[in-house]
Amino acid sequence: MKLLLMRHGEAELNAQTDADRPLTLYGRTQVSAVARRLLEMDLQVQKMMVSPYLRARQTAAIMSNTMLSNMSGTIFPKSSGGPVSNKESGNISGNVSITSAGEPWPEEVSEAITPEQSPERAAVAIAKCFDNAGIGLVIMHQPIISRVVYYLTGQDQSIGTANLAIIEAPLIGLGCCELKCVI
């Protein structure tokens, strides 16, 4: 299985709470560029896990909408079955993404990948979520993303905003994985 561990795009510095910080315009641009790069690499996500923080949810929406609009063209809300008009609104509440095969990217929102969590807790949640899915995308924060990369691969890697670590993961556990690259 491939794990794509991604840090959200650049976020505003000020908000009522850390969890409420939205992406900046530059952050949105960063995320779109990463999505296009994954398309060029022919990495098609089968499942996604995302932090509940606003900037991570916005990153998830942009990733899925950018990638899928280039593959299948349309994103549909769960409730209505009709298309979503503003693809980069960042509002993913109630939406699913449609893969090139017309199947939704299953998405799980998890507190286990928020900044203050331990890498052990995050790794257990990631393992449960993906259960050896082909390619899984996890959108999270610092410092947890660097800690998880180290926990899984033993490699100390700095992960900037909108950077994505590609990890080969035969198993999800301490030192069981190989860091292939960071984009």
Task: Report the radius of gyration as a whole number of Å.
Answer: 15 Å
From the spread of the alpha carbons, the general shape counts as globular
Tally of strands: 9
List the strand order in the largest sheet. Answer: 6-2-7-1-8-9
Instruction: Please report the first level of CATH classification, the CATH class.
Output: Alpha Beta
Major sheet: 6 strands, mixed
Task: Name the CATH architecture.
Answer: 3-Layer(aba) Sandwich
CATH topology label? Rossmann fold
Order of helices and strands: EHEHEEEEHEHEE
Description:
The protein has 4 helices and 9 strands. The strands form 2 sheets. Strands 6-2-7-1-8-9 form a 6-stranded mixed β-sheet. The chain is 31% helix and 20% strand. The two termini are 18 Å apart. A hairpin with a 5-residue loop joins strand 4 and strand 5. It has 183 residues and is α/β, with parallel strands linked by helices. It is globular. It has one domain: Phosphoglycerate mutase-like (Rossmann fold), CATH 3.40.50. About 17% of the residues have low confidence. The longest helix has 18 residues. Helix 1 packs across helix 2 and helix 3 packs across helix 4.
